[in-house]
TrEMBL record, chains A, B:
SUPFAM superfamilies: 2Fe-2S ferredoxin-like, CO dehydrogenase flavoprotein C-terminal domain-like, CO dehydrogenase ISP C-domain like, CO dehydrogenase molybdoprotein N-domain-like, FAD-binding/transporter-associated domain-like, Molybdenum cofactor-binding domain. Keywords: 2Fe-2S, FAD, Flavoprotein, Iron, Iron-sulfur, Metal-binding, Molybdenum, Oxidoreductase. It comes from Calidris pygmaea. This is Aldehyde oxidase. Belongs to the xanthine dehydrogenase family. GO terms for molecular function: 2 iron, 2 sulfur cluster binding; FAD binding; iron ion binding; oxidoreductase activity.
Amino acid sequence: GTKYGCGIGGCGACTVMISTYDPVAKQIQHRPANSCLLPICSLHGAAVTTVEGVGSIKTRIHPIQERLAKCHGSQCGFCTPGMVMSIYALLRNHAEPSMEQIISALDGNLCRCTGYRPIIDSYRSFAREPTCCQLRGTGQCCLDQEECVCSSSTGDQTHSGLCNPEFPPMDPTQEFIFPPELMRMAQEQLRTLIFHGKRTTWISPTSLNELLELKAKYPKAPLVVGNTSVELKKTHHDAYHPIILHPVRIPEMYVVSSTDDGLVIGAACCLAQLRDILMEAVPKLPEEKTKIYQALLQHLRTLAGEQIRSMASLGGHIVSRGSNWDLNPVLSVGKSVLNLASEDGKRQVLLNDQFLAGCEHADIKPKEVIVSVLIPYSMKDDFISAFRQAESQKNALSIVNSGMRVLFSPGTDIIADLSILYGGIGSTTLSARKSCEKLIGRQWNDQMLSEACKLVLEEIFLPSSAPGGRVEYRRTLLVSFLFRFYLEVLHGLHQMVRTVYAHQHTGSDNTLSQEKMSALVMLPSGVPQGVQIYQDVDSGQSPQDPVGRPIMHQSGIKHATGEAVYIDDIRPVDGELSLAVVTSIRAHAKIISIDASEALRVPGVVDVVTARDVPGENGKDEQAYAEEKVICVGQIICAVVAESVTQAKCGAEKVKIVYEDLEPILTIEDAIKHKSYITEERKIEKGDIEKGFESADEIIEGELHVGGQEHFYLETNSVLVIPRVEDKEMDVYVSTQHATDVQELVASALNLQSNKIMCHVKRVGGAFGGKITKPSLFAVIAAVAANKTGRPVRFVLERNMDMLITGGRHPFFGKYKVSERRNTKATTKLPWGVDVSGLATWSDTQG
Amino acid sequence: GTKYGCGIGGCGACTVMISTYDPVAKQIQHRPANSCLLPICSLHGAAVTTVEGVGSIKTRIHPIQERLAKCHGSQCGFCTPGMVMSIYALLRNHAEPSMEQIISALDGNLCRCTGYRPIIDSYRSFAREPTCCQLRGTGQCCLDQEECVCSSSTGDQTHSGLCNPEFPPMDPTQEFIFPPELMRMAQEQLRTLIFHGKRTTWISPTSLNELLELKAKYPKAPLVVGNTSVELKKTHHDAYHPIILHPVRIPEMYVVSSTDDGLVIGAACCLAQLRDILMEAVPKLPEEKTKIYQALLQHLRTLAGEQIRSMASLGGHIVSRGSNWDLNPVLSVGKSVLNLASEDGKRQVLLNDQFLAGCEHADIKPKEVIVSVLIPYSMKDDFISAFRQAESQKNALSIVNSGMRVLFSPGTDIIADLSILYGGIGSTTLSARKSCEKLIGRQWNDQMLSEACKLVLEEIFLPSSAPGGRVEYRRTLLVSFLFRFYLEVLHGLHQMVRTVYAHQHTGSDNTLSQEKMSALVMLPSGVPQGVQIYQDVDSGQSPQDPVGRPIMHQSGIKHATGEAVYIDDIRPVDGELSLAVVTSIRAHAKIISIDASEALRVPGVVDVVTARDVPGENGKDEQAYAEEKVICVGQIICAVVAESVTQAKCGAEKVKIVYEDLEPILTIEDAIKHKSYITEERKIEKGDIEKGFESADEIIEGELHVGGQEHFYLETNSVLVIPRVEDKEMDVYVSTQHATDVQELVASALNLQSNKIMCHVKRVGGAFGGKITKPSLFAVIAAVAANKTGRPVRFVLERNMDMLITGGRHPFFGKYKVSERRNTKATTKLPWGVDVSGLATWSDTQG
């Protein structure tokens, strides 16, 4: 049931629940986790619950599954097992969660079909807040009425279709218990765990001393807790570590203590723990001490999803120093201190901009590990704020983030100290250190702001060719954050003035203008307020007639139990091979040679397949395998089939392609210039064009640009081809919106009659138009390999390959021209939204 | 492509070609072999060619395959790969074989569909005799005519459809060569080969001395050459040997030499070699010396099939002393001598009735091995004959066989010595030793015969309860053989008299009466003379219209290449289990208990399935799994599913059933008495019955008995059930004539709608009515097991289980009564062949 969605902990489709027993606290901890990031070694002593363990049609459907299905929370169903697991992990920890917890639990789960509302609605019934049907906001709750029917504004009879649902209650006694043998194991005396892999040795020490010894012995070995950052480097940069240290059984690294200076948090604590600790601490402390914690909480609520937050450690977050890691700038402006240890003893370093930039004198040494982090209390005259701007409010890396702090000389608005740090600008966190220094002693007013903006933009220089692009936008964010910080502090100063200094000043300066106040309003981030209402069916309608009734997806229950079979869930077939493709790294080039000799020497590699192996037609509008030249980056050149996916990928990396570059066409405008069209130009004309424009009183004309868009169907393109033994027949199991096209292209590629190709499409894990033409090419790729080797071939694209190869919905470019005659009844009005796809062209960056 | 047909070397469906290199003779030997009998250890150094190696659609179809397919030599196609292999092995040894060799090569291949004629016709084109179309015997060969059309007796236009076929010629250069590495291996210095299995160690020594040492060390270890007899004991009696000696590399055991006394043949020579040696020797020797060899040849031509003859050794044939082994009585009357060897030295023993009965003083000792056999020349006054009666002329164990020899005092018809030995009567070969002694000195005349018959019947006593039944028939054969021997000898004596003693006697006695001579005529055993002719189609018939044309079976080529997929050829499915059944050993009994505990402990056994595991209907007219009682021997009681067939069978043997016997119903008459009917009595009536019989001049009435009959479809009942993951759907791949019945019974057994069950029938390897109702029950057996375990289940019956469980076509019993009135035009004539199946009953021996 667990699904592969992205491989980088970004979509939550692979969520499972990890349960461990803490022998000291005598507590079982349940945590949601992205299984794509979980090294198997890290699971020693842990119980893993997948969606199958929650409930199944064969045994018992869990209320989480039933309610999600019956409340229309599944459409394509591919994200559904992950949704179930996220809520399941939540409910195992909190039997009566708040709506905020429910929303938060789903932060890390992407859904492309539902828009989330039905999913959240289905889980509303588990919330401790009173819930009812979906007619909230109408002023009358259906539960208070005899019939759940209300009159909508149009006067039609409507009802929610979901009100007062008779769901079986949760019964926690029916849940799986934590395996007693694991509990016993956790209580036994600890011993060092060592796992030897082919390339990597994984060591889990039992004490800090042992860890420090190991770190001295293997200074290059990373400490891995949640594996959320090391794994990504492995996946994307093929980084590999001969030794990995796994410090999850060292009590010192899980310490949580409150000192006179602040809170000390163990470096191995995960971000969700940090959040919970801070949420518990804030109400208990004087408000002035908690400004830093509130700033951190602001980020901790939006950073990644609950799965990542439950696995990623505070120490890992700090030490891996990603430029768009949100907490570091805030921790830095809060003057946090890292407690380090090594064989040579303990020491403390300041987590500042120099540490974050990896400056040698400010950094930890190879033998050292971060044991814990001191996050000092903020002071009375401190103002600390955290900012982030991302593509979505949650579960997205920030584009730019920031931590800002100002300390005023007591009782004044004179800047005594100022720190401004930015993430997302350079390769490390950057500090506007010089600007801040220059501003010390200045008053907090508009002149200071204006000066500050100028200084910051000068100091935090972002060249127009900066990696990551969107330079203008990011530069704007630099000063926007600063402007907002200015206002927040100003507002805070005014508040203080009103309450403390009321006797000294007059009232005129003491409030922000309404315009400025509007900049301080937070975007709503709570529970979605959307409501779906259903038109009531005529009472005379036959109960068998489904039209107009809200009917559960036929596979809804199976989606929720993980029993719905998608292509990659099909049981392995005897003799099955895995396929990996080699794609073009050039936008436009001649293929001079393909050297597969080294790939063929990789153990497990069975064959390398190229355009020469296609017995018939090599694709239709596009070539399946590139022939003499490539016309875009990501075009498939050849395929490696091997006994395992790993071997196939390894083989693909070993194929050597020699290119001879040609001039690339990179934009639509370029393509038009080169007359490089896919189809004929499309035009929509209405009226007598010539006459119309001649006699026009006014002519409106212009251009229309629509950007490209990744479809991001949650199920990546997947195909399983099984050659039958007789008559070259083939079964093609494929995730496609256009089965006939698959059948025809495969048959024509293999030079067979179409009736020899059986194309099976049981269901598709999302498509959105993205699986109309491309799946046929992938099917051809796999079918040609199966035909050549005589063995079944499975070809499931990894997310990055899917995005690279398919290229998503094309960008569009259109022109419009409309004429209008005034003072006459005969007007020519052309639709503004002309279908401009006629100008989609062969641009070389993507098909 | 190689097929399982019987598992005991009886049907030839599994024929492969074994090629070995003889480094002394510098010759490659190709031999056909039943792979079901071949221990893998015996193949060290051998090249095995299966039908895939002969030719395939993917590469090149071999002429043997093409001609067999195009000449309509395949129908169900299951025997076809074996047919191809038998002829292939022949052609590799004899590029231009005689028709006799071709017929003989196919002796060991059963076909249930074609009647053999089309198979032999297709291979006629390889024979060195002139061949043409199938119009032999019409006096005009179509090859001599312009058009291959002749007028049949009815005057219709007919033609063979096969004349002058344009087949591509054989091209021996295209055959696989013997692997050079094996040739090299054979030439290298020999070393002892030892294979250690789980239970058995297999040792192949390099010299006679080494063999004798091993035999001394392991006196109980059998010597295995072709494994044709040891394997059967293993299959049927679970006999097992911790040590097996394989003496195929010992030159002394392959000796062929001619001495003053006779021919000495190595004990490891196979029967086909013996045949070839004798056929070569006979024409070269004076006729009087060869009488024994001719008698042996008579049996060697009919004994078993070419595969068995090519594998079974002379020594093995002698020493295993099967009562219906044909050669022993003949070798014994020929006074053959066994050359034995042991560590203690060499000695000779007479192969006589005492040796054959295993009498201790006449037997070989545990440490001894038979090195070779001396078959002495016969003498001038010898008459030696060999007799066998079997269910078919070839490839069937004899019911009774015999060797007889008489030596006359020179120049007389006075018996000087007489030996008569019978096989197939008792558990060993029996000698009419006393009778023979009494007859010495008697003249060879009718009185002697009459006395001899009396004596033999007294001495060779066959009680009416003798194992094997058919006592009357066998007793008849005892004297029939004797009578025939009497006539043969008498005829021989007359011939001699006519030629040698013509001067002494008058002519009246010198010829046998025509009636007696008729008893000496041999049954025709040569080339079938059948002809198939095809009606010519109208010349106006569209070429696309197939009606009336002789069209090759659509799968003909695939049958012949082995590429046609039958149930058991379907690739293994991931997680697939094998199923073995436990059947009733009682004719009628209550099942008191089923104890599966020991079976479940067998490694690999996954589950034991009984009637209790059937969620729905347990069969329709018959129970699939027996419930409270069994009503016949062979009724399925439960099923064991395991990771492998061996494990499943092992588990099935460990299930303990406790029965409480009930009175059995064993015959149809019994069943009628107990009113134990399957269906209502069936009657066919015609005319006014009452009136008809009242006014009848004559009433004819009687009973009609038709015996039961095994269908012997070459493909045993086979089913593969693959549960789909969703909705309890199942794919059922089954060999059946009635797919709907399978679908309905499986659905009802699993309590599912029929549309959840996909029943796939691609082809059936023979059925003949035997796969109408039974396959549904086997499908239910497997489907219930698959449903319980959630895993795919394959259930392929072994031949003995298939015959035991299905019971074949029932015996029938019918009554008829016909009235007739004479001298009137209104006669009532009832069909004689009334359908009497109405009286088929539940008899307990078989369903």
